[in-house]
Design brief:
Largest sheet: 9 strands, mixed
Structural class: alpha+beta
Number of helices: 4
CATH architecture: 2-Layer Sandwich
Radius of gyration: 20 Å
Shape: globular
Helix content: 10-25%
CATH class: Alpha Beta
Order of helices and strands: EEHEEEHEHHEEE
Distance between the termini: 59 Å
CATH topology: Alpha-Beta Plaits
Number of strands: 9
């Protein structure tokens, strides 16, 4: 098995798994449904098409830069201005960076890697108003899903790294494997994106962590107010 790595970064992201009515929430990390939907868009799979080739992919994500939660609100009116619709609140993650990983057969992952570099449909980070910043795919790699999420280079922005300690612990959320102690169960395993019969099922998730070195950490020592004078 191989692993396709994706860098998910942008000014705003929104990964909703349970939005209702006038409040559109976001999870703290990309959902499996959202990332599979992105891969399907790159591949040219329409919402009404079956997801057959993507259903067997395993998924995990590492929170490299958690960002901050922001709230926006929107008011909509009909084209003629006569009717107004309820005020909606939408939540986003600002300045977040994630390392997402999917594992599967090599031929399929290589095809998805190529599709991500020249996507058939536009790519977005959960919502259409959230385009990615820069290239998304980091290529296909050897190893297991867990190994790649633990050992792959840290993707956080340099300014973020400079604010943190020399060693950082990053949170990982991934599909459970046989023998794992399941941490939680979430309903974001997509079966169909067809608007007339959208279907998701449950998947078991494990929370783990990766410890990474931070070469750009600020090292502070004793304060010397005369150091600026040299000598």
């Amino acid at each position: 098995m191989k692993v396709l790595l994706l860098r998910l970064a942008g000014p705003l992201q929104a990964w909703g798994a349970s939005s209702r009515f006038a409040r559109r929430y976001t999870e703290i990390a990309p959902t499996k449904s959202g990332v599979i939907g992105m891969l399907a868009a790159a591949r040219g799979v329409r919402r009404t098409d079956p997801l057959t080739e993507l259903l067997g992919l395993r998924f995990g994500v590492r929170i490299d830069q958690p960002g901050r939660l922001v709230r926006d609100f929107q008011v909509a009116r009909s084209l003629d201005g006569r009717n107004s619709f309820p005020l909606t609140y939408r939540y986003y993650l600002a300045d977040a960076v994630f390392l997402a990983a999917v594992s599967g057969e090599q031929a399929l992952l290589e095809g998805l890697d190529q599709a991500m570099s020249r996507p058939h449909f536009p790519l977005y980070l959960g919502r259409r108003s959230c385009p990615p910043a820069g290239a998304v795919s980091l290529g296909v790699h050897a190893g297991t899903l867990s190994e790649r999420l633990i050992h792959s280079p840290w993707q956080a922005a340099r300014w973020h790294q400079r604010q943190l300690a020399p060693t950082i612990r990053l949170e990982i959320l991934r599909d459970a494997e046989p023998g794992d102690a399941v941490t939680e169960t979430v309903r974001d395993e997509p079966l169909s994106f067809d608007p007339t019969r959208r279907q998701h099922t449950w998947r078991h998730v494990v929370r783990a962590h990766a410890d990474v070195d931070n070469p750009h950490a600020r090292v502070t020592g004793d304060h010397d107010p005369m150091a600026v004078l040299g000598g």
